[in-house]
């Protein structure tokens, strides 16, 4: 099966991820003890396992995009590695993140309509609000601990899960969702979060100096499982290797030039 990007059309580029895991620590550290416990037991609680033990490798993601092949499933990304097809889809994303995979329209009736948080902290939401303004409201302007917690939840969504460009306005609807704490833990955060990530994984790679990944890119990459001791010859190369573990698991191993460790990710394969 042919790659979507031919070998002749591949090129090096500076690549970054807009996902900011430091926001998880920022929000947690700013809360009081009661709301810290609420946070780790909330719908975003499983994200905290990524907080300290994984560093994103955008070069790995960039290399994987060059291995993309046509996917027979509209919301999955397929790659050809070695002699096997491997894929990443919505089910993988929700299993890794712990986010609810439900349908957002099923919860519309539970979203508060009064836009209280927008009215109190962002002049009624009449103007676009940037992530930096949301961060400032969380850190410096919250009128009580419960509002700080709610603003923190919105900040996690915008900076860890949605993660568009810093100049992009936040989704104001999220302020209404987090204002209902009973709704927060059953709301289907998984679908919209995955859609932003899917956009980055499926967009056409153009020859520009810089590419940005949106969404929770860390879900595509697992932590370094163990250190290796490559030879000097191996240290001078940059390559991707794939191992098969029957019946439905593959491991992709990527080694960057001069890196003494390999970054590994488990994939369901077909």
Automatic annotation (TrEMBL):
Organism in which the protein naturally occurs: Rehmannia glutinosa (Chinese foxglove)
Ranges where the DUF1985 domain occurs: 69-199
Matches recorded under InterPro entries: DUF1985
Protein name stated in the entry: DUF1985 domain-containing protein
Top-level lineage group: Eukaryota
Cited Pfam families: DUF1985 (PF09331)
């Amino acid at each position: 099966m042919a790659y979507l990007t031919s070998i002749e059309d591949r090129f090096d580029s500076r690549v970054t991820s807009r996902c900011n895991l430091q926001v998880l620590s920022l929000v947690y550290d700013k809360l009081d003890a009661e709301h810290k416990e609420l946070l780790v037991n909330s719908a975003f609680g499983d994200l905290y396992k990524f907080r300290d033990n994984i560093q994103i490798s955008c070069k790995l993601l960039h290399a994987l995009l060059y291995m993309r092949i046509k996917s027979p499933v509209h919301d999955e990304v397929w790659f050809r590695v070695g002699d096997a097809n491997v894929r990443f889809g919505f089910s993988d994303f929700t299993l890794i993140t712990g986010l609810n995979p439900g349908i957002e329209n099923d919860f519309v009736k539970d979203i508060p309509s009064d836009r209280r948080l927008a009215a109190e902290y962002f002049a009624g939401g009449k103007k676009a609000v940037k992530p930096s303004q949301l961060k400032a409201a969380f850190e410096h302007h919250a009128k009580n601990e419960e509002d700080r917690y709610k603003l923190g939840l919105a900040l996690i969504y915008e900076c860890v899960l949605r993660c568009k460009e810093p100049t992009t306005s936040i989704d104001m609807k999220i302020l209404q969702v987090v204002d209902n704490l009973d709704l927060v833990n059953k709301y289907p955060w998984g679908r919209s979060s995955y859609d932003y990530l899917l956009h980055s994984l499926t967009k056409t790679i153009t020859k520009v100096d810089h590419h940005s990944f949106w969404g929770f890119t860390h879900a595509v990459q697992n932590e370094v499982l163990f250190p290796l001791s490559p030879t000097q010859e191996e240290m001078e190369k940059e390559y991707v290797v794939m191992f098969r573990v029957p019946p439905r698991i593959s491991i992709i191993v990527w080694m960057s030039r001069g890196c003494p460790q390999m970054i590994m990710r488990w994939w369901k394969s077909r």
